[in-house]
Amino acid sequence: MKLTSKGRYAVMALVDLARFDSINPVSLRDISLRQGISLDYLEQIFSKLKKNEIVKSIRGTQGGYVLNKNPNDIKLTNIFHAVDEKVKTVQCNKDSKRGCNGKATKCITHNLWDELEIHINTFFENKSLNDLLNKNKETRV
Amino acid sequence: MKLTSKGRYAVMALVDLARFDSINPVSLRDISLRQGISLDYLEQIFSKLKKNEIVKSIRGTQGGYVLNKNPNDIKLTNIFHAVDEKVKTVQCNKDSKRGCNGKATKCITHNLWDELEIHINTFFENKSLNDLLNKNKETRV
DNA sequence: TACATACCTGACTAAAATGGTCAAGTTTTG
DNA sequence: CAAAACTTGACCATTTTAGTCAGGTATGTA
Ligand code: FES
Ligand code: FES
Q1: Which range marks the domain in which residue A68 is found?
Q2: Residue B93 confidence (pLDDT) above 90
Q3: Nearest by Cα to B100 from B115, B108, B88, B90
Q4: Is residue B98 part of a domain?
Q5: A101 lies in some domain
Q6: Helix boundaries (H) for chain B
Q7: Which CATH number belongs to the domain containing residue B13 in this structure?
Q8: Is the overall model pTM greater than 0.70, yes or no?
Q9: Which of A70-79, A94-103, B63-72 is predicted with the least confidence, judged by mean pLDDT?
Q10: From chain A, which residues contact B within 8 Å (Cβ)?
Q11: Domain tally, chain A
Q12: Atom 2, ligand 2: which residue's CA is nearest?
């Protein structure tokens, strides 16, 4: 089970953004430099964050991105959903009665994987961007 | 975040095994047929389970595999560890002070990923093979 | 109005991981 | 001795990941 860089970067970038956007729009270039993430890759990520109304963009010189919601209302779930980082513990279709690989019924461990998926998603639902900001301030020396 | 088939198959196969091994050693061929998992792939998986002393092998005709421990003492953690299915929320080395991609320090969201990793691993540590057997009996019609 | 800054879009790709297969054994029981 | 079943290691097609690259378009400022 691995968390992909895309998901990790999305959260990193938003935390960075949240710390500065009250002053000015934050350019991807700045985030790229501060967080060491490729600018081109950030652009892909922010395009999705924007489509999902997590950020707003401001074009032109001195432009950049701004949060579109209160940091308290941006949960990890929302961020991950926006960048297509989803938790998948099985291959079979959730809504179908069929099992993995097109088998007629669900397998003997199916319930377990459902539980696991819920367990992980709960973590994401309970963590907001704001939690990360506070946590970060606390641990800053 | 995806759970790989290897990890899923390992657990499925062991649950299947646990239901029959009190009578006879269970051959991989039987597990393969019952669970719809490629025999060749199962062989790779059981080779690892054996190295980690989760199962014992009995060679020859009427041979097969048997659990090497009490189902209560086989946690999901042990199974996953055996087949190299590990939870990885970061790229950077746990024990190093350096961050991802060789950066000099850990990133601003590092704590979060640690928490996530612990959250997931807790689930695996608290689930034993025995839990799965009971659960399965309960839900069987 | 030019120009620099910064967003925007889509195509492309190298490398790694995944999910196996294939081949050639060895061991043991009936 | 034949068949069943474990053992080992190499091999491989496909998919996913983690980007890069090449072109735009919009807008504030000198
Ligand atoms: S996980 Fe898909 S059938 Fe059980
Ligand atoms: S996750 Fe590796 S440095 Fe933060």
Answers
A1: 5-88+128-140
A2: no
A3: B90
A4: no
A5: no
A6: 5-20, 28-35, 39-51, 76-82, 110-126, 129-139
A7: 1.10.10.10
A8: yes
A9: A94-103
A10: 1-5, 7-8, 11-12, 15-16, 35-36, 85-91, 101, 103, 107-109, 111-113, 115-116, 119-120, 123, 127, 132, 135-136, 139
A11: 1
A12: B100
